[in-house]
Amino acid sequence: MLEAAQANVEEVEMEQEEKLKELTHKNKSATLEMRKKNLQMAAQIEEEEMELDDEEAAHGAEDVEEVTCCSRELCARYNVPNKLCAEESKCQNEARISPNDEFMGLTKPSSNGREYCMQCFAVNPRIQKKLYMKKTNQQEKFEKVLKCTGCQKL
């Protein structure tokens, strides 16, 4: 009887091992199937993103500039630094010609040319006034601005 019980235990153990192997195989198959689906989803997402990038590239940068969030124009003048008045130490304006201020500059550009604030130009008798004309310290070039000046959104 002991031998029969021992044979029965061995048979049960073998069945359990078989079931364990079968479950392990199913688990591995399920895991592999999940990995495969995840890779397919990742590939699909990447493909969709590439299509979006291609569409954006096809539209070009011109379309981006047309998009605005308010009515203000998305461009601004480049920064304008102070100019120096040629009178320097004698100047009443601390030798500065601020942005948007008027000044006197040579009619024809020259490397020897000097620029004077309006006050210094008016009181200096040594300047050949015929060679100068009134100008404004302002940059004529504009830069594209990516941030709206009205609401500060991109």
Automatic annotation (TrEMBL):
Keywords per UniProt: Coiled coil
Coiled coil: 2-58
Source taxon at top rank: Eukaryota
Name this protein carries in UniProt: Protein CBG01994
